[in-house]
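**User:** I keep going back and forth on a fold encoding question. It is easy to fool oneself when nobody else works the same problem. Could you pick a protein and write out its sequence and tokenised fold? Could you put it straight underneath, so I can go through it closely?

**Assistant:**
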Amino acid sequence: MALFEAACDATCGHARALTYETAHGSFQTPMFMPVGTHATVKGILPDQLRDLKSQVVLANTYHLAMRPGADLVAEAGGIHAFMRYDGPMLTDSGGFQVFSLADTVKLSDDGVTFRSIYDGAKVHWTPEENMRIQQQIGADIAMQLDQCAPYPAERAFVQKAVDYSSAWARRCLAAHTRADQTLFGIVQGGMHLDLRLESVRRLREIEEDSLAAGGRRFGGFGIGGYSVGESHEVMFETLGEVARALPEDRPRYLMGVGNPTTLVRAVAEGVDMFDCVLPTRTARMGTAFSSTGRMNMRNAKYTRDFGPLDAQCACPTCQNFTRAYVRHLVKQDEMLGGILLSIHNLHYLLDLMRRARAAVLAGAYDEFLAAWMASPAAQDY
């Protein structure tokens, strides 16, 4: 299979099982991607990511560009060599982080100006500069610079975000030249279905124009601007139609979503890839996903519970440590508590998506979804 091409291994309804080839190996969908913002998944060694069978790891362009700097990462041999991880990687554009700093951000047709959260320095990113930085960092998949609209937001604001994102997508695609890296476009449009479909239409048009001029195509597509404050049900009012409006021959990546039930439901709508800090962030707060629903390990009921964290889980934490011990660590603010829960939560989502893929391959995704929604594990909100 050629680099940055997807093979469809099976479909079941709208759910898909893809295999996608990158310069650092192939990955299979549906899948969840652990987030390594600062070139590290917090508390997890690269060898542990391999043991957990993680396929793709994210790094954050905004934070790496500020500290330690893209030049240093490039000097180290790129992000894979820098963090000693040899599997496929993805960098987001940093757009979400930039636009979360709304008070300091100035937008123009040329790009975005903001102040660094590290030292207050003024930074200006054009789409071309963002591509230069991501190509220096050297992940297998780069994301276009986009504007992520918050929720709620006035329609005119969301429309302008679509306009900026579309214009920047065109410039990102023209500026992206690294042969061993591909670029994903990003759909915006808030909760407005017509604006979402307009964003998809523009991305398709940009790609057609690029190919007609002898340029490149997008290697896949991100679906951004969800999970920004709206309820899960509001997201699902439009998500499926948006996902299925994108090309069938490339991955569809729902950005920033990591709730187990949301992942299972989104796969049924045609989404292939997910990422979120939720499994590791909630782990550091003492929370675990489980087959019986979300667990708060600070609860006194676990004080003398010497059973595994989740009897149905095969992760190292569940195989070797008790609920009583994990609770003790969490209550004492010992870093090992967050590490053990991070290992468990990551395994939980990675394994959930492996089981989702198996259900698609078996032609039984409807049954898989129904069984999940009827189980106590679905109580994870």
